[in-house]
Amino acid sequence: MSDFTAGDLATDDVTVDDFTVSDFTVGDSDFLLDGRPVRLLSGALHYFRVHEAQWGHRLAMLRAMGLNCVETYVPWNLHEPRPGRYADEEALGRFLDAVRAAGLWAIVRPGPYICAEWENGGLPHWLTGRLGRRARTSDEEYEGNVERWFTRLLPQLVRRQLPAGGPVVMVQVENEYGSYGSDRDHLGFLAELLRGCGVTVPLFTSDGPADHMLTGGSVPGVLATVNFGSGAAEAFAALRRHQPRGPLMCMEFWCGWFDHWGDEHVVRDADDAARALREILEAGGSVNVYMAHGGSNFAGWAGANRSGPMQDGLLAPTVTSYDYDAPIDEAGLPTEKFWRFREVLAEYHDGPLPDPPPPPAALGAPARAVPDAWTPAGDVLEVLGGKEWSGPLPPTFEELDVDRGLVRYQVDVPGPRRPYSLRVAGLRDRAVVYVDGELAGVLEEEDAVLAEPVPGPAAVELWVESLGRVNYGPRTGEPKGITGGVLHERQYLHGIRARGLRLDAFEVAAVDRLPWRDAPREMARGLFRGVAEVASPGDAWLELPGWTRGFVWVNGFALGRYWSKGPQQALYVPGPVLHAGGNDVWVLELEGCAGDREVLLR
Which of 71, 80, 176, 591 is catalytic? Predict the structure, then answer.
């Protein structure tokens, strides 16, 4: 293995002009650049988890750590939130331009499924809601939608491949498919589709180092790679059983891990992670550090997992932070792991590594907002919610076209009748229940029973929030909301009224139309508004003492979900979001906050 890696590409004396038309290929034992062996030293950085104004800084941090390449996914649901309606679909191209300017190569993983601890694994809710388990198979309707999306997405990637003078050196076929299914025809379709759309650089797959995963996820003639956090010798041996020739690559070296709400914060020892990285490189492998910089799950895009060995147990929603205990933390600063990795990676460079760039500006002084305006949750729903639905059975979130957000279900218990248990069958995910306008309890289990029996007649409201669609395993794409029914004793209650509220409805002009009033001094829920006076803007952390659970916006920018149960206690605020003077803060509290509530920026 030659040391022709970042020493030729990503050092201080290299500029974007050094991206000449080159040929990147897969050899019998190495990656080859114009016939010369090269090693990919890559780091995962997802453009959609980092404020665009900070891309350049984060990419410079990757170079300073000793990497010569960056890897990113592409989330389909972010860019096509409704069928045929697109949102910032050119973001990938802009990011790849920033990658080229930073002197890095790029690995792109366009999906259509990406996992990534992202809502629904990147698949649109409007597609999985209709197809269910037909998604990620050779189903004609599913593949037709994928072809339509790839035909629209991929030209910006194709124009930026290495042979065209761009940074893209490899493109992935699906993602960890062997952990999900065995439809080899579907994988073959995707590979052919990528080629048909103009992708000429090498294709690859990535799976865990287990025989069933590598068997189910590999494509004949396409490079297979493996994902693991330790045990490089064993993982590469498993890969060699399935692929006797070709470069060895760990496409996801898990140097840390992600957090779930209500669990302990996950930390991996820096020296232990550095030893595992060294083992990969000493085995002659290339590597993609997952994550090199995690960023944040802004705007409620965090996914969820199911507990248990079959991923079929309780829902475990992912927190807003995607720090991942990565070597570059959520705010873009180097950690101890950064310096240990830099020491290892420096041995694979011909010259000295570039110094890290100056850190981003931090907030000059703490700021505080005491929300003084308020709109009750019912009024927010009336102004910003979708059309009211009525029918005998409760609709799912998908049927109401709600991707991220909540749904209010209303149903009447007839009477007179004595108190019986109120049960919700097929609940996903969390319901705050009111009986005759009074809080009656919070339900979280899929087959949930209210603690206190309910007599009739009574009016029942269930405010159900999606805590994130499952992004991995056999329950990926499952519908949200009340998927069964509401029962009183053993009798279904029919005549359901429902109305959805999407998070993307919270735009400045729409929020201004709300019937604002003075914020109550007692426990309350709804949308609160305040102003934080900032003297010197910069990166900040937002804390919410006295609040329970909901979402936060600063100057219209959706930071994401907060929840007092932890482990995350503060939300990252990118410096470019703030400005000198008054900064608008909105807090959508869904369960009830204390009367002495405030919002702190530090």
Answer: 176
